Predict the 3D structure of the following.
Amino acid sequence: MTQKRLQSLLAGSLLLLAGTAQAHAPTDIAGGFSSGFLHPLLGWDHVAAMVAVGLWGAFLGRPAIWLLPVVFPLVMAIGGALGVAGIALPGVEIGIAASALVLGLMVLLAARPPLPVAAVLVGVFAIFHGHAHGTELPHAASPLAYSLGFVLSTGLLHLAGIAFGLLTRLRFGNTLVRAGGAVIALAGAWFLFQAL
Amino acid sequence: MKLARPAARPALAALLALLPQLALAHSPIEGIGRFYGGLLHPVMVLPHALALLTFALLVGQVGVSAMRRAYPPFLLALAVGLTLAGFNITFGLPSERLLLSSALLCGLLAVAQWKLPLLGFTVLGALLGAVVGLDSGVEASLSRQETFAALLGCWLGAAIGLIVIAGVVELARRPWQRLAVRIVASWVCASTLLVLALALR
């Protein structure tokens, strides 16, 4: 057998290679979960807004501080469902950038509006964030694992914000948290400038 | 350069050994064995895990009275479903959608801390057990003993998962613990809502 023939045989045989077929492939699940988990973490606009929601909860007090991590993912999922369904939402990037600016300002000013007003404001922004995640969902290796990943990561960002927000109980904590709000508002202004 | 025919044969044999392996529909971790594969199946298959998790959260929130009504029909229907799946009788159910819908319904009830009538736990338990069982079949190529081991493992895995999670939730009485349960339920709801939207589009 000549070398040329052997090379052709090798090349042809390599086409037959394939991984083990599994109905519930763990690699798809792990890949989908990790890409979903990282999606909110790798976008600074998402991170800033999610942490700001938690920080603002500290100023809004009970029950808002604990209602946010329960209600926010559900409202975000509605935005995500719109994205999955292919229903276009105008100005998604602007909405996400504006969310960081507005929520950062709320923390900076230690604003305490009535609960329904705060809920509507956060809910509107949640729809923009959900829409951005939802449009990525159909392309994920495992949509369910992807959605679990990004919901979990968003929830953990909230909880991180709430944990930092609890610093307001310390002596200089109030100033520290409001300074955090100022940084988020500045970042939001920069995101908005870029989006426009 | 010319190679001798005998030299090409081992190379060809080695390549043929790399051909696709047997499809393992229900071994979440390769090489773990049929029984343990079945035991982990309800945890490793996400729609099953989420449906069982939210049902367990709901049962645990209500407490012992719900457990009394939910466990027997769930365990019985699961056994029946697994037996039918063992004979490759699955009725062509859209299992994933049914399981995700169940996860969404139970999750929303848990978020709202809705006191479901006790009969509801019986009905939900029976339906969930049947769907999980019917969707947990094994490859037709398995021997009778391997099939039994896989199905028994699956039955035990689902039963242990439900009973342990519901038990932990029932013991969680402090306000922050109750809140944590609702947060987990809302995260599962958000996730399943998105995937259902994808499935229905």
Q: What stands out?
A: Chain B has eight helices and no strands. The mean pLDDT of chain B is 83. Residues 31-200 of chain B form one domain. Residues 71 and 170 of chain B are 14 Å apart (CA to CA).
